[in-house]
Design goal:
about 375 residues, Rossmann fold, binds adenosine-5'-triphosphate, 6-stranded mixed sheet, about 20% strand, VC0802-like, 9-stranded mixed sheet, binds magnesium ion
Length: about 375
C-alpha cells in the first residue's frame, strides 16, 4: 500500500482547450512548492498525484498554498485484486467519521469482476457494519468514500480545502508597490492568486527610514514569494525626491506629490520588466491620500492600468487576510515608511489635479526620476 496525495484543481477546468497548458503550469508550481521534500508529482488521466513523501502534513501544508489548487485528498494506492483488503482499508479511513456517507466507485478497468454499483453496495454495507454511527445517504452525503479501480485501486475520503486561484504566471506579470504596511502585501497576494507573477517596487528614504525598514519589506516579500513563486524586489532610493518635495512644494500637497512620483517610477520599472499593470494597497477613504479626488490625482500620472484589489475593503477585512497569509505580524513591526516621514499636518483631502500638477512644476521631475532609477537595487527573493 502506498500513501499519495490527490490534487484537485477548480477553475482550470473552465479553460477548455487551454486546460493542458494550465495543468502543466500548475504541476510546475506544485513541484516548486515541494522541492526538498523528496516527493514526485505526476499526472494520470488529467489528475495530479503527489507520492514518495515522508511527511504527509508537510506536503499538505505546502500544496494547499499553491495558487490553482482547489483541494487535496490524502489517498492510498493498493492492489485491486483483494476486495476484502480494499474494504478493510475503506473501514479504517471511515473509522473516525460521523453522519451520512456513500461509496462512490469508478471502474476504468472494465474487466474487474464487480461493477461500480456492486462495489458501492458491498463496500457501503461493510462500512456500515463496522461503524454503526454512520448512515447512508446517496443524494447528499456528508462524506464520500471514493474508490477508483484502474491499474491499481485508489481510495480517498478526506477533502482538505486549498487556496484556489490560478497558477502563477498564467495571467501575466504586474508590479506591486510594496510598502512595509499591512495593505500592500495583501493586495499583491490577491492579484498573484489570479495567476499573475508579481514584481515589487519599494521606495526607501535612508537615513530617514532605517535599514531595518528595508529588511522588513524584504522579509514581507519573502513571505509572499512562497505563494508567488519568487519575487524580484526593486529598491528605489527616494530620499532626494522627498527632500526636494519638502523644500519646494506646498505642505498640504507633499504626500500626494510623493505618491505621484512613486507611481511614475513604478510605471517605468513595470515597463522595463514586462509588467502589464501596477498594484497598490489603496482603499477608498482609508487616509487623506486615498479619497476619490486624491486617487484621481495620483492615478492621472500613469497610463498603465492600476489594480487596487482592496479598494472596497475595510481595514478589519484586510487584517483578516493578512493574518491568514501570515504577513500581519511582520507588517505590524513599528518601522517607519517613507509615507510616514515629513507628513503634512493638514493634507489636502479634496485636491485639484491641476493645482497639484502646478505645485510640482518647481521640481526637476525628469532628472529626479532618472537619478532614482539609476540607483535601483534589485533583490531576488
Ligand atoms: P500600506 O499598509 O500598504 O502601507 P497605507 O494605508 O499605509 O498602505 P499609503 O501609505 O497611503 O497607505 O500607501 C498607499 C499605497 O502606496 C500602499 O498600499 C502601497 O501600494 C504604496 N506605497 C506606500 N508607501 C510605499 C513605499 N515606501 N514603497 C512602495 N510602495 C508604497
Ligand atoms: Mg504605507
Amino acid at each position: 500500500m502506498k500513501e499519495l496525495l490527490l490534487v484537485r484543481y477548480g477553475e482550470i477546468f473552465l479553460k477548455g482547450l487551454n486546460r493542458p497548458y494550465f495543468i502543466r503550469a500548475l504541476i510546475r508550481k506544485i513541484r516548486y512548492a515541494l522541492r526538498g521534500t523528496g516527493s514526485n508529482v505526476w499526472v494520470h488521466d488529467g489528475r495530479i498525484f503527489v507520492e514518495g513523501f515522508e511527511d504527509l502534513e508537510l506536503v499538505i501544508d505546502r500544496v494547499t498554498r499553491v495558487f490553482g489548487v482547489h483541494s487535496v485528498c490524502p489517498a492510498v494506492e493498493m492492489p485491486k485484486e483483494d476486495f476484502d483488503a480494499l474494504c478493510r482499508q475503506a473501514i479504517s479511513m471511515m473509522a473516525d467519521m460521523k453522519g451520512t456517507f456513500k461509496v462512490n466507485a469508478r471502474r476504468s478497468d472494465k474487466r474487474y469482476p464487480m461493477n461500480s454499483p456492486q462495489i458501492n453496495m458491498e463496500m457501503g454495507g461493510r462500512i456500515l457494519e463496522a461503524n454503526p454511527q454512520l448512515k447512508v445517504n446517496v443524494h447528499d452525503p456528508e462524506h464520500v468514500l471514493n474508490v477508483e479501480i484502474r491499474d491499481q485501486a485508489y481510495l480517498y475520503v478526506k477533502v482538505i480545502p486549498a487556496v484556489g486561484g490560478m497558477p502563477v504566471g498564467t495571467n501575466g506579470n504586474a508590479t506591486l508597490l510594496l510598502s512595509g504596511g499591512i495593505d500592500s502585501p495583501v493586495a499583491g497576494w490577491m492579484i498573484a492568486k489570479r495567476g499573475v507573477q508579481i514584481n515589487a517596487v519599494h521606495f526607501h528614504s535612508y537615513p530617514y527610514t532605517s535599514e531595518q525598514a528595508k529588511e522588513k519589506v524584504l522579509d514581507l516579500a519573502r513571505k509572499l514569494s512562497y505563494s508567488c513563486c519568487g519575487i524580484k524586489v526593486h529598491i528605489v532610493p527616494f530620499t532626494e525626491i522627498q527632500l526636494q518635495i519638502r523644500d519646494h512644494c506646498p505642505e498640504e500637497y507633499t504626500t500626494l506629490i510623493m505618491r505621484r512620483f512613486m507611481m511614475r517610477i513604478a510605471e517605468k520599472i513595470a515597463e522595463q520588466t514586462g509588467s502589464g499593470a501596477l498594484i497598490t494597497g489603496e482603499s477608498i477613504g482609508q487616509v487623506a491620500s486615498q479619497t476619490m479626488e486624491a486617487l484621481e490625482t495620483t492615478n492621472s500620472v500613469v497610463s498603465m492600468p492600476v489594480f487596487r484589489p482592496l479598494i472596497g475593503f475595510d481595514k478589519s477585512e484586510i487584517i483578516d487576510i493578512a493574518k491568514k497569509i501570515d504577513t500581519y505580524e511582520l507588517s505590524s513591526l513599528p518601522y517607519e515608511d517613507c509615507c510616514t516621514i515629513f507628513t503634512p499636518k493638514h493634507p489636502a483631502t479634496r485636491p485639484k489635479k491641476d493645482k497639484v500638477a502646478e505645485a510640482e512644476q518647481k521640481l526637476e521631475g525628469e532628472t529626479l526620476i532618472a537619478a532614482a532609477l539609476a540607483g535601483v537595487e534589485v533583490v531576488q527573493v
